[in-house]
Amino acid sequence: MPKQTPEGLTRSQPLPSAGAFGLYVDFDGDSALPGASSSARFWSRNFPTEHGLIVNREWGRYAEASLALGVRMALELGKTPTMFGGGHGNTYFTVRELCREYGALNLLHIDAHHDRYTEPRLCHWSVMSRIQRDLPVALHPLGHRFELERAEAVSRETIQGAPWYVSWDLDVFPAPLVQSVMHSVADSRSSDSFLVDFLTELDRFEHSGNVVGVDVVEWDASRASAEEQTFVIEIVQRHLERWVK
What is the mean pLDDT of residues 111-136? Predict the structure, then answer.
């Protein structure tokens, strides 16, 4: 069993793949997600990588550029940029840098929220709208269930030959599975039924081993119980093992 520490659950095993470059984010854009600093420490302790970068909020306006720098460092090392923590708006900067490298991306967006409000500024509720308007990216939603009638339409089908990026907002899980998120969204199914349906759908994700970036965002580890931390660690680990080689 993992050992309980003030920083969360510490695992003896590193990230399941030596292919990951960890971007541990203590920076939320404008989402003011509580506990981001401790969440960054939680991720770096529980999913350490041989190479990585902690992006601090103290860097101010340079933090966004630092995310792009981290992606570039990962690519130069032949690693997969894997961003942990922070707000969902940060996904824009990692995806933009990967588009510069690969030309176009397919993006699996795992979230209870569509994040496709037609807000003119970039923020955590408009990030996917901005991504599909500004970048050569095809969005593939999974788990969306909040205010779908207000979502900007998905504008592209799968881009053949383009690699995949996985963006995972942990508020896709309803309480009591995961409670330490900024905006929890209820689901009519029981926790067990939701989890079976969700994992079945996620396991259908066909990426052909061609995932070039991952992020796991919008969760406050400092508020989470040991049980919730364990759940998050186990489910994230299970899927990173499949996506990051």
Answer: 93
